[in-house]
Structure formats: structure tokens, C-alpha cells
Amino acid sequence: MKLLEDRIKKDGIVLPGNILKVNSFLNHQIDVDLLDKLAEDFKKSFDGVDITKIVTIEASGIAVACSVARAFGNVPVLFAKKHKSAALSDDVYYSTVWSHTNSCNYNIVISREYLSSDDKILLVDDFLANGNAMNGLIEIAENAGAKVQGICVAIEKAFQSGGDALREKGIHVESGAIIEKMSYNGDIIFRS
Amino acid sequence: MKLLEDRIKKDGIVLPGNILKVNSFLNHQIDVDLLDKLAEDFKKSFDGVDITKIVTIEASGIAVACSVARAFGNVPVLFAKKHKSAALSDDVYYSTVWSHTNSCNYNIVISREYLSSDDKILLVDDFLANGNAMNGLIEIAENAGAKVQGICVAIEKAFQSGGDALREKGIHVESGAIIEKMSYNGDIIFRS
């Protein structure tokens, strides 16, 4: 999506450690209109696909998911909560996710009440890099018996292999912008 | 807002400790259409008021804030991040907030880049009870020199005194539903 690529070029800051700072429109401050336009693009890519629920992870995924839910006819958003504690109750599905940024494991949990084998879900997030968080959501979906119809992320870092590994598994992955290469004090190159 | 009151009566669950569980449409699963309608109501209450930014706290405030931002002509959303660590960098405004639910202090932080004395802001959250989180956002706004034009929350627990204390300070507070009284296994009574 050119609008998003242009915004990343204009306002994104590449930090050491392959970090792309997009706090001015996605991760801290949010441009809701940009997300709505991105969501309309996702809807076109999944035209005719039955979606009963949008599933994401707190916190930065929520804004993207709400825009996507609206574009898909106001289906419910369901966001996985992050738990540092290993103590989990029996009424949740969970998965353990490795955080590359913070070098620690954390659990993501979804209440069993809100996800079932009747659900056909679209997984949504702000970033897709190594795919750890996304694979955690997929594990939860499998445990719930829900069908993953596809994945939509705002920004994919293709030089980390999460997105392409998911595509190789046969999952339909759409990204608003796919970054092939970026470097500290250098250019950001998008997949064409 | 009758639609929200009806939804709370239908799907809200009162738990011991004055906890209202609304995980099915607000805190875990989100009904985006309901939030959009609530946001339109808030817009009517603040008709003609100049708003440059919607400010909220992660995670449950983000969905409400995105709907409100849309209703106010797509002004940016800015969400405060929660930090358990006391170590904070110089480039943030912060406030220390007491969490009644978790019986601990946490810091909320907003980057100095995104809030200034030019801003006229609307504070948004999912819940208003004792007002601790809201007072934290107000402290941050004061430190940034931003003007607080008002507060919009989905659900206010009036039996805790946060909302009325803010009104007594002269702040325009709008709540989608104001609960006067609720009890475990009992009725939920709204302010008329």
C-alpha cells in the first residue's frame, strides 16, 4: 500500500538492532484514517472470504484490528492478553511467545468463552517479523478449533522470515508494507 | 446511552469486589459498532469544542479512543504506555498510578514528542472508577502544558468517586453509562 510505504519513508526511524520506530502513527500515536484505508485494502484482498472474528494481541494490534473489523462488516475483535505470570486459569487458551525485543518469554491468553470451532478468523497485528506472536495466535486458534482464514499486518519485515514461513505453510498473508531491507541511517527498501 | 446500558444489563457480569466484567464487548472481545455509536454520542456532547488529539491508556482504552478519534474528524490517538519499571528516560512525560485491581503502582508514560502546549485534548478510557488512571493522564497533560477539554469514558462507576470528583474540578466528563449501584448476584442501577 503506497500510502503506508510513503508514511514509513517520511516518519519511520530505523534504530540499531533492526528496530523500525513508527511511534508517530502506529505504535504510540495512531493515525486512525491511515488504518481505515489499510483495512479497506485488506478487505479487497479477502473479498468473499467468510470471517467471523478478528483476533489480535494487545496493545498495538488493537487499533489495526478495530479498523479491520469495521471493514469486514463489524465482526467482533478479540485481543489476546499478555501475561508474564506462568499461573494461568483453566478457562483460557494460551501460548508461550518469545519476545525478541525484550529477550523473555511471555504468555498470550484468550478466554475459551470467545473462541470456538465455529469461528473463521483473521489474525491481525501491527508488525510481523520473526512471526513468534503470530505463531502463538495460530497455536491458540488450533487449540480452540477455530479456522485461520488469513493474516493481515500493517508492516512486515521480510528480512526476518516470519511472513514468508507462514506463506510457505499455505496461509494467506497480507501486509500493508513489506520491508525487504533497512539499515541504521540508511534507506528503507520495500518489496515491489 | 441506552444501547450501552442495555448491553451492560444483558452481558455484564458483576463479580465480587465491585468488578464489572464486560469482556464480551469491551475489555477482551470488542464490539466496534457499539463503540462507534458511543463515540458519535460523545461528539454531540462536545460539539464545537476544539480537539487536536485523543489521549488514552493501553490496552483497553485504545479501541474506545480510535472510535472517538474517528467521530472527531480523525484527529490522532495517543496512548500512554504502562511501565512497571521505575527507570524512565528523559524524553517522556510520566505519572505514577495506583492500580486498585492489582494493588500496585505502575507508571504511565507519553513521549514528549507527541504532546505539547499546542494540544487541546480529550481524555478517553473504557472505565472510570476511582479516577486514578485519569488523574495520571491529567498530570501528564499539565506537565506537557496541553489543555484538557474534557473526558469521555464508556462506563463510569459512580459509587467510586472518581467521575464526580473530576466534575467538581470543573472538567466536562461524559460517560456512556453511569452505574450508581451494582451488587454481586444483584441488579445494576444506572444514573438517570
UniProtKB/TrEMBL annotation, chains A, B:
Subcellular location: Cytoplasm
A Gene Ontology biological process term: purine ribonucleoside salvage
NCBIfam families: PRK09219.1, XPRTase
Entry function: Converts the preformed base xanthine, a product of nucleic acid breakdown, to xanthosine 5'-monophosphate (XMP), so it can be reused for RNA or DNA synthesis.
Subunit structure: Homodimer.
Protein name per Swiss-Prot or TrEMBL: Xanthine phosphoribosyltransferase
UniProt binding sites for xanthine: L20, N27, K157
EC number of this enzyme: 2.4.2.22
GO MF, any single term: xanthine phosphoribosyltransferase activity
Reaction(s) the record says it catalyses: XMP + diphosphate = xanthine + 5-phospho-alpha-D-ribose 1-diphosphate
Domain Phosphoribosyltransferase stretches: 23-158
InterPro entries the record matches: PRTase-like, PRTase_dom, Pur/Pyrimidine_PRTase, Xanthine_PRibTrfase
